[in-house]
Amino acid sequence: MLMKKNEEFVQSVNPKGQKSCDSFHNTIEFIGKRWMGIIIYHLLDGPKRFFELSMEIEGISDRLLTERLRDLEAQGLVIKNQSDPKVRKVEYELTPKGKELEDIIQAICEWVKKNGCCYKE
Amino acid sequence: MLMKKNEEFVQSVNPKGQKSCDSFHNTIEFIGKRWMGIIIYHLLDGPKRFFELSMEIEGISDRLLTERLRDLEAQGLVIKNQSDPKVRKVEYELTPKGKELEDIIQAICEWVKKNGCCYKE
DNA sequence: TTTATAAGATTACTATTAGTAAGCTTGTTT
DNA sequence: AAACAAGCTTACTAATAGTAATCTTATAAA
Questions:
Q1: Which of B52, B117, B121 has the highest number of chain A CBs within 10 A, making it the mutation to test binding with A?
Q2: Nearest to A26 by CA among B115, B92, B98, B65
Q3: Burial of A34 (0-12, 13-18, 19+ CB in 10 A)
Q4: Whole-number Å distance between alpha carbons of A85 and B32
Q5: Which of B41, B71, B118 faces A75 most closely, judged by CB atoms?
Q6: pLDDT computed for residue B112 by the predictor
């Protein structure tokens, strides 16, 4: 829309110049990235190996699974455990911060139970 | 990964041949679409006009805002109210189903309060 | 003891989705 | 009359996702 910001609609900003909803926005954009939700969902069962995730999550490619796991590591939501680097056994596990996502996943599951799920158009 | 599905990891399926996590997956992929979360967040305040949303949500383009509102309508989460089609006043309002998303938004806000937000890499 | 297969990636390329910018229409302001 | 506002749409570019092939090293099978 071609117009200057109407003062009436400017949001409240905190001392760091961040709008109050910015951290919400950043977070949902992150956990809403494609495949992210279902990866977290499966990791809530406990530590999983790369190929386990790849089997359980139908349709995901190795490339995207790798990329999402790196994203999760970078945010401190997942740690990568590779006990012996000589053995190709790599496990991915939620950190305490990552485990706390369970409430969000739970809320979504409950919404679905109550309201039915969403679909691709 | 180049391998046939290991039977050990095949998921439980319901009578409709749907995996138990499919509806969760569809739903989070939908509400996790870019900008979707923050649009819902702002609509939880009450009905909003197109340009109000566009002002409040910094960075969104008209094109994407239109597209996301259409997506939300198609899923029955939002209704478009245009009392008089002669007047260019269009309001978007969450349906009861849409309002129930509040618990999910709430869960995310609480996670952020406790754990800090996620960032783009 | 070659041969094959598996885990966990990376790379190259194509397709889909997002971002940017402009334009359109009809009514209201100046 | 001219400019501007709301709510879209269209055209084009940039970014992200999907597909497929390849790589490395280790173990299993022939």
A1: B117
A2: B115
A3: middle
A4: 35
A5: B118
A6: 96
Which nucleotide has its C1' atom closest to residue B62's CA? Answer: D8
Total count of residues recorded for chain A: 121
User: Which CATH number does the domain housing residue A46 bear?
Assistant: 1.10.10.10
Tokens 């000589």 label which residue?
A: A86
| Residue-range definition of the domain harbouring residue A27 | 21-115
The answer to the question of residue B104 being in a domain is yes
Q: Is the pLDDT of residue B22 over 70?
A: yes
Strand partners, A49: A91
Q: Nearest to residue A42, comparing CAs of A78, A82, A85?
A: A78
Measure the CA angle with vertex A88, ends A84 and A89; round to 5°: 75
Residue B44: C-alpha distances to residues A27, A111, B15, B28, B96 (Å)? 18, 16, 36, 18, 11
3-state SS class at B14: coil
Please name the helix (run of DSSP H) or strand (run of DSSP E) that holds residue B48, with its range, or none: strand B48-49
In tens, the pLDDT along B31-86 reads 999 999 999 999 999 999 999 999 999 999 999 999 999 999 999 999 999 877 67
